[in-house]
Amino acid sequence: MLFVISCLVTAVAAATIPRAPDPCAAIAGKTWIAPSEVRACFESFPVVDSIKSNILDVVEKTLAFHTSVNYQIRAPEPFANDVQEDILADIARIRRSQYTSEFEMHIDLQRSTRRLMDGHCVYFDLCYDSTFVSYLPTPVVHLTDEQGQQAVHIAPEAFDVASVEFADQLSVWQSALPEGLSLGALLGAKVLAINGDDPFVAVNANAAIAGTYQALGTRQNGFFSSYQRTATGWNYTMGNFAQMSLPLFDSVDLTIQRVNSTTNETITLPYRSRLGSSTVPFTDSATFRQNNCRAIEGTNGVDAYSGSATVAFKLPGERFAPSPTPNPEVVKRNPVSIILDDVPHFGVALPERLQPAEPVSGSGVAQFYVLDDGKTGILALGSFSAASFSDLQSALLGGLQSLTERGATQLIVDVTNNGGGFVCIAAWLHRIIVGPKDTTEPQALLDTKARAGPLAQLIVDRIVEGADPDQNLWYNSLNWNFANNTVMPANFDWLENPVRSIINERSDAFSQRCGSSCTLFSVTMNKVEGSKTVVVGGKNDIAQEYAGVVGGQSLDYASIDTEIKVEGSKTVVVGGKNDIAQEYAGVVGGQSLDYASIDTEIKTSRLKSHPLAPPDFVTNSIQTLNWRLAFGVDNPEEPEVPNMSSASGSPGLDSTYGCLFLTAIFSAVLWTTGSLQLLSYLEKHFRADKFWLKIYTVLLWILDTVYLILILRIVYIYLVREFGNMDFLDRLPKYIYVSSPFSPIIAAMVQSLFVSRAWYLSKSYILTSGLAICVAAQLVATIMYIQNTRHFNHLEQLATIVNFERAMNIIVLFTDTAIAIVLFYLLWNLRSGFERTEGIIKRLVAYTVGTGLITSIMAIIAFVTAEVIPHSFVYLMIDYCMATLYFNCMLASSVHLFIKMF
């Protein structure tokens, strides 16, 4: 009886204790709320060990099918500092870690996958990602003024966008501003600071966690607003500053300078979170979890031959995949390669005043225009996917033909924010632009390889045994060609005898080399005759000459990469920071799949119970991967993915051709100084010096004079004769190579004279021979570098021999330093105690050390600038001035005085 009474008392007491309010119930049914309220809901869910283990098991075991796991532990140059993610080690770390909430764990896992810097391989949890999307009414842009100065500004069109898309929240943002200041008055304002720091602190902080793209410049560009062509119209993309998929920030402090004002003002704007368009309604925490956080149809794969299951072929990434969504049968038969972002594609309309005029032809994502000059056509290509594969083929071919019928002879292809789609559409576009040739027939795509892990090999074994009679599985050999472009036979074990590799000190295995299967087209292929094309695309926009490509942040197609690198097309980045390299390819893939697709392969092969098979997701999660990896263009034996895809040029010229202009000035100044020194030499010492030294000195001056004339000619052609010709600026005309040998020859002649001094002082064959070998090595290395570049037609090709250039700069630095040190040591040991001799020695030591240090320091600066800012011409400016500097150093070091001593 006492026990019963005690229980009743306890129950009554518990009933009187107020329950903590349900943070998810507090936001249920609301469209707009504060990010802090969303976080409170998300952070209320504790980590459940079984769910944590399930997520990590699926992600880890699915990564066995991702081709680049070991490559991404440390990418080769130029992305060695950008891609350094050991994802398997991070998953092990997450398993051991304790978290205050499931949301905290999700952020850690997602950011770990993002550090792969590969938009083909991502992880989303629809319980959190874009369930609520946070916005600011002030997207920002990075603008360059007429003087070439760059700054971050509030987008001039920001109020137009906000007043339409966020009309019901304008009052909230307006009330946050100081009295008398309106949102409309912020348009175009220069942003001096974000949260008290330089704007690029925020830009780079976002780039560090944004992932998706290898190059820093591409990730930086994602911070800013842009645009995109969709199947239904033109969309405005807010950028990562003004649109966030997770509720991580409540407000932002902006220090601005409004247009036509010199006053700095600091304002605080709150982020506002809007219910995602795909979020299922809920009433409290329980219904939120049930409706949005549990696995749904399509989360996991199915057995394609189970009577109760229906295979729904879809783009990897579902709601995050580029639109429009193709027909399932189209997806089944056509491989895709797509880059995914964590914000679903939806319609924030591009302000009408920013939209182009009516197209001359086109359909959906492919629209064609003709500029006022009558000769330039534009293809705006928002995606490589469409509901119908053949319709998109026809639209592209018909559109190009319509442009030529209207007299267009050159083309710009704008693929800005194009997230990808069918790989064979990229091949098709390449083919109809350049016509039939060895780079487009029998295929216009790069060869690929797939990872050949133990489970993948078992899947192929089961298919060979008859597990896939209807060709539903991607591992079926009937989907692929051999490297010689012949079709693989049915039931062929194409993963047998895998190619073993050691990548970043880890063993890996891949399939044999596979050719493309894009050889049969449903539309007759003809070249668009007489055209010169340019392609533009992605978030770092590109332009290409001959048929033409302009494009950017999202571009990843191997076919487009081939067209640019092999066909001689030109690329131009629109946007980006002047001192940061801009890449036109976000990251080259091959073919994308997701976990559900891999799970279908496993279940259909009856291998779900295998210990290497990932379990079913219990959460509403999406994981994508790069299933096939494209081989390189410049190095066909290695993957293309880590290679640099540099844009040919940028509208910002200060760090490139501005340096070329300064080269002419500095070279002329140094030549004048050297000529004055020569004149002094002729007046005072010419008659007394030895005959060979006179000839030697005058010959050096003649070579230096001819070299200066050639430099001035190059500068005149680039900056005067071809002024405004952006196409020409990326070219490497053959007459540039006429000037190239002069610099190493002058350097070798001056250094040889210094080596002869070492001989006079030491009489040591070993020492002198060592220095002579250094001089000869420098001359040979430089001549070899020049020879290796003689076939280059475009500046970006110089990046392909960057390691050779590094070696050359190191040899130059070592040679100059060695000569200076040796001469210093030998001269210092000559001191005799006689005042006159001491004075001469000290003078020679000072000149030797001084001149040796000058050339050594300049060599160091050239080496460092080539490493740190390789896409500027600072290092070239120094290299071009070195020859004249050597001549000056020789005259300054009192040659005649030195010779008279011996």
From TrEMBL:
UniProt-listed Gene3D superfamilies: 2-enoyl-CoA Hydratase, Chain A, domain 1 (3.90.226.10)
InterPro entries: ClpP/crotonase-like_dom_sf, DUF6534, S41A_metabolite_peptidase
Residue spans crossing the bilayer: 660-679, 691-715, 735-754, 766-787, 807-828, 844-866, 872-899
Keywords annotated in UniProt: Membrane, Transmembrane, Transmembrane helix
All copies of domain DUF6534, residue ranges: 814-893
Stored PANTHER family: PEPTIDASE S41 FAMILY PROTEIN, RHODANESE DOMAIN-CONTAINING PROTEIN
Protein name: DUF6534 domain-containing protein
Source organism (scientific name): Sanghuangporus baumii
Biological classification of the source: Eukaryota, Fungi, Dikarya, Basidiomycota, Agaricomycotina
